[in-house]
Amino acid sequence: MTIEGRIGVLGGTFDPIHGGHLDAAAAARRACALDTVLLVPARAPAHRAAAPQAPAVHRFAMAAMAAQGCDDLRVSDMELRYEGPSFTSVTLERLATLGHRPEQLFFITGADAFADIASWHDYPAVLDRSHFVVVARPGHSLAGLRAQAHLGARMREAAGRAPARGESVSIWLVEAATRDVSSSALRRRISAGQPIDGLVPDAVARHIARHDLYSTQSQASCLHA
Ligand code: ATP
Ligand code: MG
Asked: In testing the pocket of ligand 1, which one of 9, 137, 173, 187 has its CB within 8 Å of the most ligand atoms?
């Protein structure tokens, strides 16, 4: 995979991918003048006890469907190819091995995920492996992060100014209105038989229904056993 320019990296379980992820990717791309955003489904995310509900192949397939027709989005299987938990630090190191400089990489998170940064594998060194782009999420404002004195020196407001080419790695804060949706809320809605129209791309909604991915009596395990 050779990609030139500024690469955004949006990691997540994507169980399933939804409009909030796409809004966050678009907000980060606009704010930091990114050329491409890579959606990177995690095998087993490092930060949660429960395993993802949908198998990795379906989570990848749904991310690929969400990227269809968006020239600036791509899906990467780089975390699915390896056993064990997916650590952002290791993913960024692999991108470095492929020839990408830290100043070229922009790891995107929501404000909720970044609030736990001090517990991430390889913290604080992970912060030196790429820029970080932190996007506000409904219910998770950036105000609390701004108050974190130990990160203050690295934080920049993305409003009105994209990072300069080659600027040293920083934490960029992006105020944006993203859709108020989460994968866990979606899974609950689906298992309760409630509609998810407008919350995920149509192709993703059809895929979930066709493969019965999140219903209570899901037969999905038979289909991909
Ligand atoms: P879950 O409820 O299972 O945790 P989620 O909706 O948080 O799912 P993840 O796959 O955990 O989805 O999120 C991947 C990344 O996308 C995280 O950095 C998360 O903060 C970010 N993200 C998800 N939804 C939004 C949103 N609506 N706005 C901004 N960032 C978001
Ligand atoms: Mg989450």
From this structure: 137
* Residue with CA nearest ligand 1 atom 7: 182
Tell how far the Cα of 113 is from the centroid of ligand 2, in angstroms: 7
Nearest ligand atom owner, CA of 21: 1
One digit per residue, the tens of pLDDT, for the chain of length 225 reads 556 799 999 999 999 999 999 999 999 999 999 999 999 999 976 665 688 999 999 999 999 999 998 999 999 999 999 988 889 999 999 999 999 999 999 999 999 999 999 999 999 999 999 999 999 999 999 998 998 878 888 999 999 788 998 899 999 999 999 999 999 999 999 999 999 999 999 999 999 999 999 987 654 454 544
Tally of domains in the chain = 1
Peptide bond just before 16 cis, omega within 30 deg: yes
Residue 37: domain span: 7-179
With 0.85 as the threshold, say if the pTM is over it: yes
Residue 85 inside a domain? The answer is yes
- Specify burial of residue 85 (Cβ count, 10 A radius: 0-12, 13-18, 19+): middle
Which amino acid appears at position 8 of this protein?
A: G
Range list of β-strands (E), the chain: 7-12, 36-41, 44-45, 73-75, 85-86, 105-110, 131-135, 155-157, 171-174
**Distance (Å) from CA 53 to ligand 2 centroid:** 13
CATH number reported for the structural domain that contains residue 22 in this entry = 3.40.50.620
Which ligand lies nearest the alpha carbon of 182?
1
**Ligand 1 midpoint to CA 140 (Å):** 11
